[in-house]
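Example 514.
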Amino acid sequence: MSDTEADNSGTTDPGYRRLSGLGRQIRGANPFAGDIVPSRIPIFARRTGRPTLPFPHPWNYQDPIRVLESCFHGADDIEGPGRHSRYLDIPGFPPFLITRDPGLIRAIMLETGDRAGQFDRDVLPFVGIAQATGRNTLLSSNGSAWRRQRKLAAAPFGKTKLFNLERFGEFEETFRQTVTTRLGALRQRLADRGEKSVQICLEPEIKCVMLEMLTNNFFGAEIPYDELRSVYVPALERVIEHIVRDTVLGQLGVLGRGLTFLRSRRKSFKGDNAIFERLTSLVTEGRRARRGLWNQFKADEVPDDALRGNLKVFLAGALEATTSYACWAITHLARSIEDQEKLYAAVKDINQYTPENLKKAQYLGYVLDETLRLTPSLYFLPRQGTADVWVQTTDSRRMFIPKGVHLLLDVWHANRHEDHWGVAKTGHPALDFVPQRWAEIEAREQVSKDLMHFGFGFGARICPGQHLGQLETALVVGALVKLFTFKAPTTDYQANAGVSTKPRDGTLVDLVLR
Ligand code: HEM
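Predicted structure in complex with protoporphyrin IX containing FE:
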């Protein structure tokens, strides 16, 4: 079996596995098999120009995208399956598979779920989040516990529930009022100062609007905007910062565990978490009055406490993801005035974001898709093998993945690689922001399974907040483009990555009144 020697003996004895695993690791044999045989990542590669070590350590853990990049250092010189799928094998630890092959990412996501042998979400990266939310949530559970959580908490976010015409109208209107009021106030601030333009970091503004839409419009809480802005957003930011530290250190799985001494022990975490608890309680109050979408939550017999963890996941996670999504869209548009104007033309006459109007504003859809492709909010998706399995891609390539392997589905690098999204496949360079590429893909009727950006995930664990998040982001970006033109002071941009990715400059733009 050359360099490839799969341990598919079928035994499940962990002692045997550990020993045979160690034997294999010492022999340097590849634990994977099939058509997709990943190449091995050298642990040390001195004088090769590799950006950093291919796992987190005290000097690189704040830049996880660079760590992932290092996993693929030199891989572009490889022909064959080892080019886009690689593995890290450190004696004594389960192997890590890191893939930027969209076909394989799709196959693994499709095989993730609660059926026997399916992949789990690897929860190690979420130990930090679980500290704040508890483990019994959609994010941190697997198997039947996850299925229960999904039934309990995800239904009200579904497309049919949310886009039910009557209900949608109600939400769209309150969301739109919120966005218009907040962005309108920004406009007024400029006008009052007699200024036509200002340089501003938009991320804090967007974050407050996103939280207000979620707490007050969606969940029917009645929290004054100033309190959201001065108390809850800053506390949530600090909780998330704490989470990030734990997330990033845990994200390459067991390797991050050794770095626990770096994890935040700040006393303030307790205080901030107490504020987060208070916010969650305010949000649950809407339930008793059946305000907002609360009457959609199926199981009235389910006590608030059973939903609490998920509510915290929604509040912190959704705030992060929607802020990231909108900030990236604005970042790209601020560097392409032509696209900004095309978007303005598409939305200028839209006063209501009904499903039909959203469909009509095609360019807005292209801008949002291109944003999630080029700068996905969730930059990698973690999985873990629960059994020895074979997976198969739609083009019939097969891969054997042994039990216990940690899988990092590197969406960030998959979506930015010329092989998958470049000129040959889409007519435009992969690293360029070109919303128009989606119109061309549509015109060529390329099937969606070939060109997927995984911005909301895929398969059974797909994002339940997709439609809500898409609507909120469309409203914020659409409203901003209608009120202002905006230009970035630089042509390039950098990404920060923690729980999600964000523009490093806080979405700094020169904002000019239209
Ligand atoms: C609009 C921006 C958003 C983006 C880009 C986004 C992205 C994602 C992605 C990629 C996943 C899949 C993770 C995986 O496969 O491991 C996911 C899952 C999830 N998202 Fe979102 N999300 C967004 C908004 C929201 C909102 C608004 C909510 C809720 C209010 C939400 C709640 C969740 C939850 C609970 C999960 C876990 C689902 C499960 O494991 O069954 N997300 N999200």
